[in-house]
Fold these 3 entries.
Entry 1:
Amino acid sequence: MAGLGRPPVGEVDDLASLAHLDEESLLVELRTRYNKDTIYSYVGDILVALNPFKKLPIFDKKHAMKYKKVVKSHVPPHIYYVADSAYQMMQETGRNQCCVISGESGAGKTESTKFIISHLVELCQGKTALEQRIIQVNPLLESFGNAQTIMNDNSSRFGKYIQLKFKQGQVLGAKINEYLLEKSRVVRQADQERNFHVFYYLYCGLDEEDQAKYCLGSASDKRYLSNGAGPLRTHKKELSEGYDQLQTAMDLVGFEGLEQENLFVALGGILNLGNVEFDGDTDRSSVGDPELGLKNAAALFGLDPMQLADTLTVSVTVTRGEQIRRNLGVHKAADARDAIAKTIYGRLFSWIVNRVNNLLAPPVTVRQSDIAEIGILDIFGFEKFDHNSFEQICINLANEQLQFFFNQHIFTLEMEEYKREGIDAASIKFSDNKHILSFFMQKPIGLLALLDEESHFPQASDLSFLEKLSKNFKKLDFFERAKDTSSTYFTVTHYAGAVRGLEMSTHDRQSRGCNVLCWLLLAG
């Protein structure tokens, strides 16, 4: 029963107004609201959004109309209010605004981004082709940048910052910055996970003639589709619809027919590159049966098969103007193959983003001083899997940076304000994560700096890198090496918990020949 003057549990819209602001009280309020399908709550200026994992009738035109020039206390918490607040503040002050969306994988960040963009378009009464093209950017990027994971069927495997540009309240254009694409997913996926959506779209959306043109062959034979062709049988209708949505998005955004075809050529080349196999030993290698991927990959990339084979099996360095060729063993040749595939896909994704930016850029006749913008940062949430790699290091580091920002915004700056006003805030305690950021980013002795240094040594290995980490960080209580000294795994304890099973690979940086291949591919 609610106490005197206290609202019933689950009826408080702004959790910052609770009489007892502790973890248990917050969770009880959020759980009660969630059970009533009230998925939005405020904590001061921050909106807490809980994924309902079902469709709710709160995103239709009727609800959108309620969140136009509205007072916060007059309407229930909603993602539309965040969009309206940013839009009205931009209109009133002429200052740029920014919305930061963060949360764990599966929390609903991608959908929240879509809701903010669609409501901003609604607020400026956007009915032109430009606004519709901006809305279509999300399904386009999701096709190439999202994948099914254990936790989320449509997980964003990259971060993005979307800048919507306005003049006198009307959308003029947009710009996208992409971060941290999970390129390792291109060459291998964990059990029950998939590669990026677009690879499966090709098999379910293209007819047999087009599949043959891009040398797709059988999905079950592709090394880079680690878990086989199962999804093509169990989710054929869904994947076919995804292909249709991709085609619609590319058409509406403005991609020409030849550009679309070249994208599919590149994807076919990557899948065939993954099937290249090697014969040899630890000292030298050669491409095995050229019919297993090499000929098709070379043809799609517009390369001579021997040139591609040489790139995969020989390392070339230039010292004082002299070329030094080193033969690569079987394992290093396979690493080179995968590094090239990842780099090509990364360059391809960046090309798509740059093309979108060119197509959606504001008219050059508009003065920059007349443009205001609303930025939307959609970044990965904290990640912890059974096996974690360089991507998880980068994702979790980004979240540490966001946590530091929130700490500064919510605690540090507020406590300084309390001090100026003579309010005792000694009882407010929070976890400062500066030491974690220093561990990763400090120069010259930080994890990233040490990885960069180690990657320049020809004989560097995952184990030699771990030895270097252990030497420098063994006294830190948030770093722990596996007890098995032959193992290359280690643990880092973040603000959100310990991430075990981390393994870095110095080979991730060794992408010999990638620039040449990417240039030939994208220039063609």
Note: Residues 330-360 form the longest helix (31 residues).
Entry 2:
Amino acid sequence: ITEKERPKTANTKSNALVKRKSQKERKKVEQEAEQKRLAVEASQRNSALPRTNLCKIPSNVQSSIFKYLSTKDLFIVSQVCHSLRATSEQEHVWVAQMGKESRSTPRNESPIVNCLIQQAILRNYFKPKHKSFKLIGHKKTITSIAINGDCVLTGSKDCYAKYWDLKSKKSCSLEHSDMVTKVMLFNGYPITASADHTVRIWRPENGECLKILRGHTASVVGLKELNSKMFVSSSFDCSLKIWDFDEKKCKATITEHNGPVKRLDANETLIASISDNDPYVSIVDSATAKSLARFTLRHAQTAVGKVPKNDVSSIKLTNNNLLFTGETKRVRVWDLRASNKNAQGAFALEENKNEDPNSASIHSGTSYQLPSNLSLASVASRIRIHETLGLFTASFCSLNGIATFDLRKPTEMNLYNDHYYPVTCFDTGKYFSEHIAISAGTTKILQYDLRVIDVRKSKADQANSRIIPGHQASITKITMNDGLVATGAKNGSVTAVSYTHLRAHETREDLVCRLLLEKK
């Protein structure tokens, strides 16, 4: 360094020191100002005057005020006094805070925790953070799956049903003498139907058979809950039987068909059933077991001299007595409510030929059809209803996706053809996840995957969310509950994927804080 450059270098060092000092002083001033601001806020929050005034406000007025507060402000206000804390824990306050999809579900936690858990589970369906369970035990194709909380019940062609408790990680085998065709969890008890002509009730703790219900003379293929005490079964012997769970006896036998009753659906008041050998749908009163209606639908073309077969491939009965029938390239809805009965007490079930696309009401016989350009699609194999949204979703054979229709606008349809091969099965959620549908299919590299769909949005607005359960064969059954998706494959493998955010050794306060941070 030359003599001329030395003073310049020293000058530069002194300037840098001055800048550092000024930055430190500026940060110190900002920190002091922030501390003063926080102290003022704390003094205002802890003062006696606003606390006294807030406590005098009626609880209904407090609830109205809370609707305009953010989540953070709501937690701050709830710490002022016991009165505000009690008002802030009311369920409707948090439902309004978290959105319409955060409807209450039967949980034991407080409404605050319920809404936060529901929001976290919904986000995880589309941004997967899950825990996967591989349930090993079956050797043949899975025929049926049922879920209740953290418990999964599966049935297979290997003559066994298996009950899995994911929380305790225990399982038990339920044995039949022939293939298991249908399973159901009724009041927490496993109920299985089999090709050995029996229906069996089991104890979930140890797999003990409590009762063998006999009466059918052929394979039992259908089970459906009517209410908390009764359920109905259908069989290849052309009959349906209503069973009393407490007495474990048959209360009534229904013989409305001339062939095997393969498809069955029911609610608390009605039972709907169809048979391939009959060209009609039968409606029966579940309380009296008397026939209320028998209406003929379009049937497939048959040779001369042969009995015409039913063209209906699936049925779905809603809680408000709307019947959906899946036919070739279309789904029709039939009004079975009391207001649609004639003077003789029978249902006026006629096809609505003069459909008004702009009508705001649902007419009996209204048809919801696929576009003519979908030539490969055939019969509607499965139907699921979104009652609170006014929508229904259906899958059609040979179609590589599922279709969602608006009940009040028959001409509008959203098609989600995300799979490379035809959809094998799908299911929809319940309660707060009612708007979510999960379909099973195959990708180009034969990776058997699931697609998560929000039926409220069009295909263009969907997030590309995919679940790979890890099966090595095509998925035959899928059932989803709030936060749990169970799938069964053709080779007997079963996988359960959980999306709940509950962690071990986590307190209620830790859970709320963590979910709030994730919600941002």
Note: The two ends are 56 Å apart (CA to CA).
Entry 3:
Amino acid sequence: RGVKMAAGAEHGLKHIVWQKIKDSIIADCRKAKGWKLLILDHFTTKLLSSCCKMADLTCEEITIVEDLFKDREPVPEMKAIYFITPVEKSVEVLIKDFKTKPKYKAAYVYFTDYCPDALFNSLKTGCGKSIRVCKEINISFLPQESQVFTLDNPAAFKSIYSSHSTDKKQTLEAIADQIVTLCATLDENPGIRYKREPLDNAKELANLVEYKLTKHYEMDENLKRKGKTHAQLLIVDRGFDPVSPILHELTYQAMAYDLIPIENDTYKYQLKDGSSAKDREALLNEDDDLWVRLRHMHVAEVSEQIPKLVKEIKANKKQRDDKITMSGLSQLMKKMPAFRKQLSQKTIHLNLTEDCMNHFNKSVEKLCKAEQDLANGADAEGQKVKDPMRTLLPVLLHPHSTSDKIRAVLLYIFSLNGTTEENLTKLIQHVKIENESEVILNWKDLGVPIISQSSLQRKSTRRDRSNEETYNLSRWTPLIKDVMEDAMENKLDSKEWILKSECPSSWNGSGAVSARQNPRHANQDDRRTGSRLIIFVIGGISHSEMRCAYEVTQAVKSCQVIIGSTHILTPKSLLDDIQALSKPPVATFEIIEEKA
């Protein structure tokens, strides 16, 4: 019984990950009859929450889910499944559980990734007698959405880009290991290309992934002869497109995460019920079908859609069609239990859209035209922006928030590929950020020119989208979409996109069948036709870039685009991270008391 996924997500990452967990951990444990407990650490808790529900585990005779690091009551008559990351801290706790008086009847141990020999040996010595199974299952990434994954590592940003960093090499090594587990989970051995950049991060990571991927397929006896599959992995550094994560986006998901304080995908809002207001929380994920339908739409379309959907429900109940209000919806919910879930989804999105539109009407609308003109280098009529400073000035003179002004200044600088020191100083003074100017200056650490180097700056050529219908305030297309489409059409510039390893044939994103030497899926319908394009962005992806993966997959039905990164960005989190790059690490020291 698979997890109920959003429509169209049956080949999505969450489904594939849950299937792999079922085929490895669950299938093993079925053999050991009886109810079991499941013990998880921080990462595996997130991993399981992303792809299954407690009910799915109960069906598999797992009765209790516990936190590895919390105090747990001994249950000596039960077998325990440990699904943990192979790190010293986790293994120590596991050994302690069985060292003196065993807490459980036996341990079934599953590591997310390769367990270093030293750890494995200490486990064998410490509690080998109690362990019935010890396996590595190769899933050390999080399936965020059906076509989006993260490595759950926002701290990698500082490790990779800060001049004070001492662990850049280890960080890239760890990222490569995680990407290999993604490829293994998808049963792909992709051809690898990286984008030539001023920084060498993409090149280094591509080398590491290629080496580790080859080693992975050599280590597994069953896969020794596995050649390259019809998949391509493109690796790119965040500095390749500084514009997309900074612009004010007007598609629903990107806009909501930018303007509303959504943490851990949880939206908090107030539901007005007559004179009182109740605090509510909603999880924005693929269990909410309406969210899946609306998340990539322009907010103008979402505003039109939701009232229509509510009217639909009212019509079903032959209710009188009054003006839809929050309190009216609340009354409806009480009367119609059958529609409760549908209605609560619509209430959530009615609130969230209203929140987004309030911000839009208050300030964002005034910013968007200038931002779009700076980003595209032309106005909505196609007239070239000859003097970007004239576009920027009205934004600086209007009482916008400091962070909105910083974003506009950055778009101005990006449009020129760097400005003069004198001009930059004036802009910093104008926005009154003399004490926090690093939020602009530190972009240089991402390889983005802030001070112009020479008059001969390369601007990447863009795909012609003049025939595509767009809203005037949403004309910008993230660069990654050009890359996805060029990759599908086999049009990537080989001087810009360096081939680390070839695919078996000229890869054009439309191979009729994925070249799999030994498809190991149990279900025939789990085998996909077509090919996969996997894109990894070092240093974070924005919600608008995530959207591009779905748009391109939708347009080119024969290829699935999967995009991932170390973490997901919002404009605020990115600017905070940029600002923090120049802060030296906090010194740790011991106080040694001298005896008199």
Note: The CA atoms of residues 314 and 320 lie 8 Å apart.
